[in-house]
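Archive record
______________

***
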Amino acid sequence: TRAFRFPKKQNLWLRLEKRGFEPEVVEIEPGTTRVNVELAMLTGETVEPDPITVVAVVTPDLTVVRRGFAKEREDVSAGKAAADLIARALASRLEGSRVAIVAVDDAELEELLRPLWRDARSHMELVDPIRLPYMSVAPTLESRSAQSAALALAERTGADAALFVAGRSNVETGGMKAGKVGIMAAGTACSFASGYANAMSSGSDFFTYNIYLPSFAEGLGLEAVLIDTRSGAVRWANKGLWKPIPLDRPEVAEEVAHDLLSGLEKQLPTVDAVETQEEE
C-alpha cells in the first residue's frame, strides 16, 4: 500500500522488479486504487542460491587520514589498528548469525585477493544496496581472474562467501580544531564588537551574544559487499557514515559493525533452519 502525489494533468509510472523475473513498467492514473501486475519469469532456468554457512572475513581496507590545519597525512599504523579492530567486530557480529567464520591471511593469499579486491571495489561504487534485492539478476564479479580467484578462495578456506569492507576515516588533529576555533573566534569577536556598539548607541543596558563553535568534519565511511565464492554473485551490499572509532573502545566498533551488517541476516541461515538441519 502506497500513497502517491500525482502531478497536474499527468500520470505516474511504476517499475516493478523481482529477482528472477523480467521488470515491468505500468502506468497509473490519479483515480487508480489497485494495480494488478503479472511478472514474466526470465527466460532460461533460474536457480535459487545455495545457503551460506561459512563466511571468510577479509581484513578491511581502511585508510586513516589525520587532517591538520595546514596539511593532512595518512596514518598507516592507525589504519592497520582500526582495520584489525573492525575485522574482530565484524567476526563477532557474524558469529551471532549461526555461521562459521574463517579469518583470511592477507599475506599468504595476497595474490589471490588482489583481483577480488579490484572487482569488489567496483561493486561497492556501482551497486545500490537498496535496489540490490530487487534486481532481476544479481551482479557478479566482472573479470575472469576474479571469478577464478573466488573459486580458489573457496577451496583454500572452505568459505561459501567472502565479506569485503573498505573505507576511510578522517581524524582532525588538535591543531586543526584549534585553528578552526581561532578563525571562528576572530569572526565572532568582530561581530560581538559591532553588536555591542549598536546596543550601546541605542541606549540598551542588556546585551547577550551566543558563541557557536563549529562541528568538526570528522567521520568514518565504510562500504561492504558479500560475494558468493562459488558463483561470484554479490549476495549483499551496504554502506554508511559514522563517527571515528576510538582504538581504545572496541564497543564502538561493535556498534558500527552491527549497523553496517544490517540486512545481512537475510542471506544467512535462520536459527529454525539450523535446528531443522541438525534434527535431520
Remarks:
- The chain is about 35% helix and 20% strand.
- Residues 178-189, 207-216, 270-280 have pLDDT under 50 and may be disordered.
